[in-house]
Design brief:
Layout: E1 7-8, E2 26-36, E3 39-46
Antiparallel strand pairs: 1-2, 2-3
């Protein structure tokens, strides 16, 4: 697992992630950033190990 980027680990609360428990945290890296009209959009890509 690499450091520095966000991790998707899920949990029991049904908020953004809802499904089976993940065996290992999923690692992501920042792919792009866009600022438009005062909004900041970020795009992350999964790191396959």
């Amino acid at each position: 697992m690499s450091g520095g980027g966000p991790l998707v680990i899920a949990g029991d609360a049904k908020r953004i992630m809802n499904g089976p428990v993940l065996g290992e945290p999923e690692a992501f890296t920042l792919a792009s950033v866009l600022e438009e009209a005062g909004f900041l959009f970020t795009r992350y890509r999964r790191i396959y190990q």
